[in-house]
Input
Amino acid sequence: MRNAELAMEYHAKGCNCAQSVALSFLKETKLSEEELFKATEAFGLGMGSEKGTCGALSGALVILGFLSSSGTYTNVSKKETYQKAAKLCDRFESIVGNTICGKIKQSESSCSFCIQTACTLLEDIANVID
Output
């Protein structure tokens, strides 16, 4: 099952957009479902209910960090991770039209579209093979 399909299943169960995207990549992390669920809960409704950065995009960025970071002080991976994050954000914005939840909702783009877009882009940018 592709990540976008799995993310839509999580969303249908009541997960917010960030949780839905992040949990669909659970097998690629070394976290438990509970840990990843908790770590992304506050990103719902546009970064803490503030209608800021789209939750689906935020969830994808959390996972990108897990997939791209070396996780050590000695092998600093920030530059590469930041480049991938910028690419993800730029592509998301070009497809969805914005990265801000409140503005996306005004344009009538759906959460489902944002979730699917974030998953597809993350698979491509992080080279996640389904």
The radius of gyration is 14 Å. The chain has a mean pLDDT of 93.
